[in-house]
Amino acid sequence: MIYKINEIRKKTVDRNPLVHCITNPISINQCANGILGIGARPMMAEHPQEVAEITQTADAVVLNIANITDIRMQSVKISAQTAQNNNIPYIMDAVGVSCSSLRRSFVNDFLREFAPTAIKGNYSEIYALFNDSYNCAGVDADSSLATERIGETAAKLARKHNTMVLASGKTDIVTDGNTTVYINNGVPQLAQITGTGCLLGMLCGCYLSVDRSINALVTACAVLGISGELSQTEKGNGTFFVNLMDNLSVLKDVQIDELLKIEVKTNEEF
User: Fold this and answer.
1) What is the distance between the alpha carbons of residues 61 and 201, in angstroms, rounded to a whole number?
2) DSSP 265
3) DSSP category for residue 88
4) Is beta strand 172-175 parallel, antiparallel or unpaired with respect to 179-183?
5) With contact defined as beta carbons under 8 Å apart, do 64 and 201 qualify?
6) CB 262 within 8 A of CB 181
7) First and final CA of the chain: distance in angstroms?
8) How many CB atoms are closer than 10 A to CB 87?
9) Residue 85: is it exposed, middle or buried by C-beta count within 10 angstroms (0-12/13-18/19+)?
10) What is the DSSP letter of 98?
11) Of the candidates 143, 227, 237, which has an alpha carbon nearest to the alpha carbon of residue 185?
12) pLDDT in tens, the chain (270 residues)
Protein backbone atom coordinates (compact mmCIF):
# COMPACT_ATOMS: atom_id res chain seq x y z
CA MET A 1 0.00 0.00 0.00
CA ILE A 2 1.29 3.46 -0.89
CA TYR A 3 2.75 5.18 2.14
CA LYS A 4 1.82 2.21 4.36
CA ILE A 5 -1.61 3.67 5.09
CA ASN A 6 -3.39 0.42 5.83
CA GLU A 7 -0.39 -0.93 7.77
CA ILE A 8 -0.40 2.16 9.98
CA ARG A 9 -4.15 1.88 10.52
CA LYS A 10 -3.80 -1.74 11.61
CA LYS A 11 -0.94 -0.95 13.98
CA THR A 12 -3.03 1.76 15.59
CA VAL A 13 -5.92 -0.62 16.22
CA ASP A 14 -3.57 -3.33 17.50
CA ARG A 15 -1.70 -1.01 19.89
CA ASN A 16 -4.72 1.03 21.01
CA PRO A 17 -2.50 4.05 21.84
CA LEU A 18 -3.34 6.70 24.42
CA VAL A 19 -3.39 10.15 22.83
CA HIS A 20 -3.23 13.14 25.17
CA CYS A 21 -5.05 16.13 23.67
CA ILE A 22 -4.92 19.70 24.91
CA THR A 23 -7.62 21.16 22.73
CA ASN A 24 -10.71 23.37 22.80
CA PRO A 25 -14.24 22.75 24.11
CA ILE A 26 -15.73 23.62 20.72
CA SER A 27 -14.56 20.38 19.12
CA ILE A 28 -13.53 18.23 22.06
CA ASN A 29 -16.42 15.76 21.78
CA GLN A 30 -16.03 14.98 18.09
CA CYS A 31 -12.25 14.77 18.51
CA ALA A 32 -12.57 12.23 21.31
CA ASN A 33 -15.07 10.16 19.35
CA GLY A 34 -12.95 10.33 16.21
CA ILE A 35 -9.94 9.02 18.12
CA LEU A 36 -12.03 6.17 19.50
CA GLY A 37 -13.38 5.48 16.01
CA ILE A 38 -9.96 4.70 14.55
CA GLY A 39 -8.91 2.48 17.43
CA ALA A 40 -7.04 4.78 19.82
CA ARG A 41 -7.85 6.19 23.27
CA PRO A 42 -8.34 9.91 23.98
CA MET A 43 -7.30 11.77 27.12
CA MET A 44 -8.47 15.39 27.29
CA ALA A 45 -6.61 16.95 30.24
CA GLU A 46 -5.34 20.52 30.36
CA HIS A 47 -4.88 21.67 33.96
CA PRO A 48 -1.27 22.85 34.41
CA GLN A 49 -0.91 20.86 37.62
CA GLU A 50 -1.63 17.54 35.93
CA VAL A 51 -0.55 17.79 32.29
CA ALA A 52 3.04 16.66 32.92
CA GLU A 53 1.84 13.55 34.74
CA ILE A 54 -0.75 12.78 32.04
CA THR A 55 1.64 13.47 29.16
CA GLN A 56 4.19 11.01 30.57
CA THR A 57 1.67 8.19 30.16
CA ALA A 58 0.72 9.04 26.57
CA ASP A 59 1.82 7.48 23.30
CA ALA A 60 1.36 10.79 21.47
CA VAL A 61 0.30 14.36 22.23
CA VAL A 62 -1.77 16.87 20.25
CA LEU A 63 -1.52 20.55 21.25
CA ASN A 64 -4.29 22.70 19.78
CA ILE A 65 -4.51 26.45 20.52
CA ALA A 66 -8.04 27.11 19.26
CA ASN A 67 -10.20 29.02 21.79
CA ILE A 68 -6.93 30.00 23.44
CA THR A 69 -6.73 30.76 27.18
CA ASP A 70 -3.95 31.65 29.63
CA ILE A 71 -4.30 28.22 31.23
CA ARG A 72 -4.14 26.43 27.89
CA MET A 73 -1.02 28.35 26.82
CA GLN A 74 0.68 27.40 30.07
CA SER A 75 -0.36 23.75 29.79
CA VAL A 76 0.72 23.47 26.15
CA LYS A 77 4.30 24.39 27.07
CA ILE A 78 4.41 22.05 30.05
CA SER A 79 3.09 19.18 27.96
CA ALA A 80 5.49 19.90 25.09
CA GLN A 81 8.48 19.91 27.44
CA THR A 82 7.34 16.65 29.01
CA ALA A 83 6.78 15.00 25.64
CA GLN A 84 10.17 16.15 24.41
CA ASN A 85 11.93 14.92 27.54
CA ASN A 86 10.26 11.51 27.22
CA ASN A 87 10.64 11.09 23.43
CA ILE A 88 6.86 11.16 22.89
CA PRO A 89 5.72 12.43 19.47
CA TYR A 90 3.73 15.65 19.62
CA ILE A 91 1.96 18.00 17.23
CA MET A 92 1.44 21.75 17.37
CA ASP A 93 -1.87 22.66 15.70
CA ALA A 94 -1.43 26.39 15.09
CA VAL A 95 -5.11 27.35 14.93
CA GLY A 96 -5.77 31.02 14.20
CA VAL A 97 -2.18 32.27 13.92
CA SER A 98 -3.08 34.06 10.69
CA CYS A 99 -5.73 36.24 12.36
CA SER A 100 -4.36 36.86 15.86
CA SER A 101 -1.07 38.45 16.88
CA LEU A 102 -1.36 36.75 20.29
CA ARG A 103 -1.52 33.31 18.72
CA ARG A 104 1.19 34.03 16.15
CA SER A 105 3.55 35.33 18.83
CA PHE A 106 2.80 32.36 21.08
CA VAL A 107 3.44 29.77 18.35
CA ASN A 108 6.58 31.50 17.07
CA ASP A 109 7.96 31.57 20.63
CA PHE A 110 6.92 27.93 21.04
CA LEU A 111 8.79 26.90 17.90
CA ARG A 112 11.94 28.67 19.08
CA GLU A 113 11.77 26.77 22.38
CA PHE A 114 10.47 23.36 21.32
CA ALA A 115 10.87 20.92 18.43
CA PRO A 116 7.46 19.37 17.71
CA THR A 117 7.25 16.21 15.64
CA ALA A 118 4.90 18.06 13.30
CA ILE A 119 3.29 21.46 12.79
CA LYS A 120 -0.28 21.53 11.52
CA GLY A 121 -2.45 24.31 10.20
CA ASN A 122 -4.65 25.28 7.30
CA TYR A 123 -3.18 27.08 4.29
CA SER A 124 -3.47 30.51 5.92
CA GLU A 125 -1.96 29.37 9.20
CA ILE A 126 1.04 27.70 7.59
CA TYR A 127 1.61 30.70 5.34
CA ALA A 128 1.41 33.06 8.34
CA LEU A 129 4.06 31.09 10.24
CA PHE A 130 6.49 31.68 7.38
CA ASN A 131 5.41 35.20 6.43
CA ASP A 132 5.12 37.61 9.36
CA SER A 133 3.35 40.28 7.31
CA TYR A 134 0.50 38.00 6.21
CA ASN A 135 -2.90 38.27 7.93
CA CYS A 136 -6.43 37.12 7.22
CA ALA A 137 -9.83 37.34 8.92
CA GLY A 138 -11.13 34.40 10.93
CA VAL A 139 -9.78 30.89 11.36
CA ASP A 140 -10.81 29.58 7.93
CA ALA A 141 -8.24 29.23 5.16
CA ASP A 142 -7.79 32.01 2.60
CA SER A 143 -9.16 30.62 -0.68
CA SER A 144 -6.83 32.84 -2.70
CA LEU A 145 -3.71 30.94 -1.55
CA ALA A 146 -2.66 28.57 -4.33
CA THR A 147 -1.84 24.95 -3.54
CA GLU A 148 1.59 25.04 -5.18
CA ARG A 149 2.54 28.18 -3.28
CA ILE A 150 1.58 26.61 0.04
CA GLY A 151 3.40 23.40 -0.88
CA GLU A 152 6.60 25.38 -1.33
CA THR A 153 6.00 27.37 1.86
CA ALA A 154 5.26 24.23 3.90
CA ALA A 155 8.49 22.57 2.70
CA LYS A 156 10.50 25.68 3.64
CA LEU A 157 8.82 25.81 7.06
CA ALA A 158 9.61 22.12 7.62
CA ARG A 159 13.27 22.68 6.78
CA LYS A 160 13.43 25.82 8.94
CA HIS A 161 12.23 23.97 12.04
CA ASN A 162 13.57 20.51 11.12
CA THR A 163 10.12 18.98 11.43
CA MET A 164 7.14 17.82 9.38
CA VAL A 165 4.35 20.13 8.26
CA LEU A 166 0.72 19.50 7.37
CA ALA A 167 -1.17 22.24 5.54
CA SER A 168 -4.86 21.35 5.30
CA GLY A 169 -7.16 22.58 2.56
CA LYS A 170 -9.05 21.41 -0.49
CA THR A 171 -5.82 19.54 -1.21
CA ASP A 172 -3.99 18.52 1.95
CA ILE A 173 -0.22 18.97 1.83
CA VAL A 174 2.23 16.93 3.90
CA THR A 175 5.99 17.48 3.83
CA ASP A 176 9.20 16.76 5.69
CA GLY A 177 11.05 19.41 3.69
CA ASN A 178 12.43 16.86 1.24
CA THR A 179 9.34 15.03 0.02
CA THR A 180 5.95 16.70 -0.33
CA VAL A 181 2.73 14.74 -0.71
CA TYR A 182 -0.52 16.22 -2.03
CA ILE A 183 -3.64 14.34 -0.90
CA ASN A 184 -6.66 15.14 -3.06
CA ASN A 185 -9.35 13.43 -1.01
CA GLY A 186 -12.23 15.09 0.83
CA VAL A 187 -15.44 16.98 0.14
CA PRO A 188 -16.66 20.57 0.79
CA GLN A 189 -19.14 19.26 3.35
CA LEU A 190 -16.22 18.59 5.72
CA ALA A 191 -15.86 22.35 6.09
CA GLN A 192 -19.54 22.78 6.94
CA ILE A 193 -19.32 21.17 10.38
CA THR A 194 -17.13 22.60 13.11
CA GLY A 195 -14.02 20.86 14.33
CA THR A 196 -12.97 18.75 11.35
CA GLY A 197 -9.64 20.57 11.22
CA CYS A 198 -9.09 19.81 14.90
CA LEU A 199 -10.14 16.22 14.27
CA LEU A 200 -7.52 15.91 11.53
CA GLY A 201 -4.87 16.91 14.06
CA MET A 202 -6.10 14.24 16.46
CA LEU A 203 -5.88 11.57 13.77
CA CYS A 204 -2.32 12.71 13.07
CA GLY A 205 -1.46 12.21 16.73
CA CYS A 206 -2.93 8.71 16.72
CA TYR A 207 -0.96 7.63 13.68
CA LEU A 208 2.28 9.32 14.82
CA SER A 209 2.16 7.07 17.86
CA VAL A 210 2.95 4.10 15.60
CA ASP A 211 4.93 5.78 12.77
CA ARG A 212 6.93 9.00 13.17
CA SER A 213 7.24 9.79 9.46
CA ILE A 214 5.17 11.70 6.93
CA ASN A 215 3.39 8.38 6.35
CA ALA A 216 1.41 9.02 9.55
CA LEU A 217 0.26 12.47 8.41
CA VAL A 218 -0.62 11.16 4.94
CA THR A 219 -2.64 8.41 6.60
CA ALA A 220 -4.59 10.94 8.69
CA CYS A 221 -5.42 13.07 5.64
CA ALA A 222 -6.43 10.06 3.57
CA VAL A 223 -8.60 8.54 6.32
CA LEU A 224 -10.50 11.77 7.03
CA GLY A 225 -10.80 12.74 3.36
CA ILE A 226 -12.04 9.36 2.18
CA SER A 227 -14.39 9.02 5.16
CA GLY A 228 -15.78 12.42 4.17
CA GLU A 229 -16.32 11.27 0.60
CA LEU A 230 -18.20 8.19 1.79
CA SER A 231 -20.32 10.33 4.14
CA GLN A 232 -21.73 12.87 1.67
CA THR A 233 -25.47 13.37 1.95
CA GLU A 234 -28.19 15.78 0.90
CA LYS A 235 -30.00 15.32 4.22
CA GLY A 236 -27.92 17.99 5.92
CA ASN A 237 -24.85 18.58 8.00
CA GLY A 238 -26.13 16.67 11.03
CA THR A 239 -26.55 13.48 9.05
CA PHE A 240 -23.19 14.06 7.37
CA PHE A 241 -21.51 14.30 10.77
CA VAL A 242 -23.11 11.05 11.97
CA ASN A 243 -22.05 9.39 8.71
CA LEU A 244 -18.51 10.69 9.18
CA MET A 245 -18.21 9.21 12.66
CA ASP A 246 -19.55 5.91 11.33
CA ASN A 247 -17.21 5.79 8.36
CA LEU A 248 -14.16 6.61 10.45
CA SER A 249 -14.86 3.51 12.52
CA VAL A 250 -15.69 1.09 9.69
CA LEU A 251 -13.42 2.30 6.87
CA LYS A 252 -12.03 -0.65 4.92
CA ASP A 253 -8.59 -1.13 3.37
CA VAL A 254 -10.11 -1.70 -0.05
CA GLN A 255 -11.89 1.66 0.10
CA ILE A 256 -8.60 3.42 0.69
CA ASP A 257 -6.95 1.44 -2.10
CA GLU A 258 -9.71 2.40 -4.52
CA LEU A 259 -10.28 6.04 -3.53
CA LEU A 260 -6.85 7.38 -2.52
CA LYS A 261 -5.67 10.25 -4.71
CA ILE A 262 -2.14 11.49 -4.04
CA GLU A 263 0.71 13.21 -5.86
CA VAL A 264 4.32 13.20 -4.66
CA LYS A 265 7.03 15.79 -5.33
CA THR A 266 10.60 16.18 -4.14
CA ASN A 267 12.03 19.51 -3.02
CA GLU A 268 14.17 19.64 -6.17
CA GLU A 269 10.93 20.33 -8.05
CA PHE A 270 10.29 23.56 -6.07
Assistant:
1) 10
2) E
3) -
4) antiparallel
5) yes
6) yes
7) 26
8) 7
9) exposed
10) T
11) 227
12) 467 999 999 999 999 999 999 998 999 999 999 999 999 999 999 999 999 999 999 999 999 998 899 999 999 999 999 999 999 999 999 999 988 999 999 999 999 999 999 999 999 999 999 988 777 755 555 567 889 999 999 999 999 999 999 999 999 999 999 999 999 999 999 999 999 999 999 999 999 999 999 999 999 999 999 999 999 999 999 999 999 999 999 999 999 999 999 999 886 655
- The span from the CA of 15 to the CA of 58, in Å, is 12
For helices 214-231 and 237-250, give the axis angle rounded to 10 degrees: 130
- Amino acid identity at 49: Q
Separation between Cα atoms, residue 80 and residue 110, nearest integer Å: 9
Question: With a threshold of 0.90, does the pTM exceed it?
Answer: yes
Q: Which DSSP symbol is given to 42?
A: E
Helical segments of the chain, H only: 5-15, 28-37, 51-56, 70-85, 101-113, 123-130, 147-161, 196-208, 214-231, 237-250, 253-259
Q: How far is the C-alpha of 72 from the C-alpha of 75, rounded, in Å? A: 5
Residue 22, H or E segment: strand 18-22
Contact 11, 40 (CB under 8 A): no
Q: How many residues does the chain have?
A: 270
Is 79 within 8 Å of 50 (Cβ atoms)?
Answer: no
